Amino acid sequence: MPATPLYHGVCYYPELWPAGDLERDIAEMQRLGINLVRMGEFAWSVIEPNEGEISLEYFKGVLDRLHAAGIAVVWCTPTPTPPIWLTHGHPERCFTDAAGVVMSHGSRQHASFENPDVRAACHRIVEACGAELGRHPAIVGWQIDNEFKCHVAEDFNPHAIAAWHGWLAERYGSIDELNAAWGTDVWSETYQRFDQVPAPVSTPFLHHASLSTAWRMFARERVAAFMDEQAAILRRHTEQPITHNFGVGFAVNLERMSTGLDFVSFDDYPSAANWSDGVFDHDLFRAAKPNRAHWVMETSVAHNGWFGAHETSHPKGFLAAEAVVSFALGARTMCYWLWRQQRGGCEMPHSAVMSAWFKPSIGHAEVQAVESARRALEPLLANSCPAPAEVALTWSDRGRVMLDVEPLGADRERHAVDYLATLKAWHRRLCDAGLPRDVRFEGAALDGLKVLFTPAMACVDEVFLDRVEAWVRAGGTWVCGPLTGTRTAEHNVPTDAGLGARLERLAGVEMVYAWPLTGSGTKGIVDSAREIPLAGWGMALRPSSEATRVRGVLRSDSPAEGLAWWTERDWGAGRIVMLTAEPEGDVGGKWLHEFVRSCAAEAGVASWGQPSPGTLIAPQCDANGESWWIAINCDGQGGTVVVPDGLTDAITGEAVAAGTLTVGRYAWRALKR
Q1: Which of 348, 381, 414 is the last residue of a domain?
Q2: Annotated catalytic residue 298
Q3: 48, 114, 147, 442: which one is catalytic?
Q4: Residues 6+ apart with CB under 8 A from 652
Q5: Which of 20, 90, 551, 671 is deepest in the core (most CB within 10 A)?
Q6: Is there a domain that residue 419 lies in?
Q7: Domain limits for position 427
Q8: What is the tens place of the pLDDT at every residue in 258-313?
Q9: Tally of structural domains, the chain
Q10: Candidate list 48, 114, 298, 322, residue with the active-site label
């Protein structure tokens, strides 16, 4: 992927508008500095109006004109919206949910790609797109499908269930092995053949945890395989890189799918109130494919919207701040959904650059502000990239599935237990502490890190422990928990030790009790007398090694009184920190902020500017190894950073005085030595 230019893009649907509008669209795009469009993902019925009648001549003409205007294109395979002829009268080709409801044509993602007829039609349209457009000079990248599993989760189509039985047979080899691994004697759930193993359809109570987790992992593998098939077809016809636009909340395996792509991209629609959601996505997808730029493939110019719901419109200045954050955190594209407001369909309330009647929208001026920022940043970032992070947060796709199946300690009214929310909360603490960070997949290398936080990862398997143990011995600090290590790979409770024998040996602890803390009045006592309220699913520990230091004990009206919830142990040149309960409320939040900062400081993590909450520092590293900063106010309240002597403003060249530097509301500063 090229480091430059920085792409400023829109999602564009010329097929929805009169042919004469194309020139007007292009002229306005050029005026705004739009140099990229994404197109094609919803155009299957235009390309193949009747089965087997495929023509891309219209789109070739559009691509020719865009190329002549200097506007690059990402072409998408149109498989998320199969045409009516594929599924009408063929319910067996449609997606089926866990309750047995068969989806209908009328939206998107309604077809079952497990059905062989649907899959063949998908392959045919992808082949046609690749063969006809694979060498077109306008195209700089390909996107497979669109937002896999945005609207649906696991498919219970009969073909999917048949594939499930085959997947189980390949994974376990014999039904006896499956029964032993899952522990199916519970509730007489022992199976005699693989084809007896149900998918987790509606049942009077709940399915076995092992089955539910395995089913979700199977379904995610099938999505990834479908994506890989499309990529293999495209690679026969194009040398341009291939991506998919992820959403972190969708039912896919992000780590598994990323392996089959040339670069990763994502869709996110952060509002001013949840600006850190976008930062989380950058930190995750930047780390997903090291040394390859990631893209923002969709965001809104003003507000998200569809029937029955719409978000508050962005305040003035927010969009430019979002763009600067994106580019500063390693993205090379800022692409809006969408260019022109939908005149029909179910997303008419969604913001766009231009209105349906082709007048500037409420976000139009903000797009101009983004272009000004892009032009200022482009020469600065041409030979720079985000500085390597020394702190990371572990993302586990399996951990997410397990917590979805079994939300330990869930009390939705008092303390919801949710994997994505938990990860984002920990990530926000790293942001507020001013720590440049990655969100690294469970299988990622730990090179360059000094501190790794691993919360809510129910299964800590041998492969992960091998990697972490070697890294800790070499000097890393591993913060393990809360909710980490409580289950085996098959989603059972460990029977050799509460957290598994190896993890407990490494940490020098023994898990004594595990129980829900929410509403129990349990407190964590630190510094001899300081009380921290605790919630969620907690674990009480007892040291099993003289080298284990108890840093926090439990005050509880239970047998856990006086046992540990926070321990540390040196291991080689590094240390292992166990945290086995979730501090809550303002008091817990303040303590966690201090805890995160102290873990980083004690590990020797470089400090970057001590930003005030709501202000982000994105350190950069140029081709000569020199470091510089971009500071952005993200919360609209204005903020401060502390700068050393000898810095200059990278835009104006003026000297910047050492000390506290004010960063205005949604403003940004680039600072170099």
Answers
A1: 381
A2: yes
A3: 147
A4: none
A5: 671
A6: yes
A7: 391-602
A8: 999 999 999 999 999 999 999 999 999 999 999 899 999 999 999 998 887 778 89
A9: 3
A10: 298
